[in-house]
Amino acid sequence: MQPPPKATHDFELLDTSMQQSDFTQTDTWRVFRIMSEFVHGFEVLSKIGEAVAVFGSARLPEESPYYRAAYKTARLLARTGLSIITGGGPGIMEAANKGAQAGGGLSVGCNIELPFEQEPNPYLDIYLNFHYFFCRKTMFVKYAKAFIIFPGGFGTMDELFEAITLAQTGKIVAFRVFLFGSAYWQGLLDWLRNVMRAEGCIAEADFGLFTLCDDPEEIARQVIAFQESLRAEHQSGPAKGSSRQSPSS
Predict the structure, then answer these.
(1) How does pLDDT run across 148-195, given as a tens digit for each residue?
(2) Which of 36, 63, 80, 246 is such that its CA lies 20 to 30 A from the CA of 16?
(3) 51-235 has which CATH code?
């Protein structure tokens, strides 16, 4: 029989019973821990340069074709000088960090405290451990200019839809989202179009917020081209009132 999961800091923050009984002893002081996670993350990650974040299942083994594709994609990107950021755990995260090091790039892991510990993978140059999901999420969005989403579970879906929502609402600009593996994602995309879009809950233009791809070299090519366009825009100065660039699906 498995032992009960331990109470994480996220759990304690969101537990209303604790807020009612211990509010003055816990929540007010918890703000300082939250602030320290932001400060430490900003200080460390502000020095990593241009970066791409890679997401995907922690459960996929090294034999998985998605593991191999994540490794190759990260290696190709690292060879161009891009840093690779992941959640720092096993599976797809490990593959991307391993590929980053193989490509001579900086390999970064932003781990998270979970009820059952997620051990960091051994391919990390920089390792940060977070207690709060929202602090960790901010680091991914703030320091990566593209998300590459490999097949994964609820956590991967969370990162995907958060990024799309932030782009859709203009909270982040000059940002790309790539989905790797049409065999895995096509069913979800069909549902988005045939149900969500059909009901009028999203617009056809929203499908331009992400790009579906099956080739690591093609994803690397598009990410590199996008980064080069950002550098050129930065050197010339962005046009006044410019809006986000919507990639084609």
Answers:
(1) 999 999 999 999 999 999 999 999 988 999 999 999 999 999 999 999
(2) 36
(3) 3.40.50.450
Residue 235's pLDDT band (cuts 50, 70, 90): confident
Residue boundaries of the structural domains of the chain: 51-235
Task: State the Cα torsion 6-137-247-173 to the nearest 10°.
Answer: 160
Write phi, then psi, for 86 (nearest 5 degrees).
Answer: -135, -175
Compute the CA torsion angle 244, 225, 222, 101 (nearest 10 deg).
Answer: -110
The label of the residue with tokens 């097949």 reads 151
CA distance 230 to 175: 10
For the chain, the 3-state helix, strand and coil shares in percent, each to the nearest 5, are 50, 15, 35
Cα–Cα distance measured from residue 129 to residue 40, given in angstroms and rounded to the nearest whole number: 10
- 29 burial level (CB within 10 Å; 0-12, 13-18, 19+): exposed
Buried b vs exposed e over 200-229: b needs ≥16 C-beta within 10 Å? eebeeebbebbbebeebeebbebbbebbee
For the chain, report the end-to-end CA distance as a whole number of angstroms: 46
Beta carbons within 8 Å of 214's beta carbon, 6+ residues apart = 180, 181, 182
Contact present, 83 and 100 (Cβ < 8 Å): yes
pTM of the model: 0.85
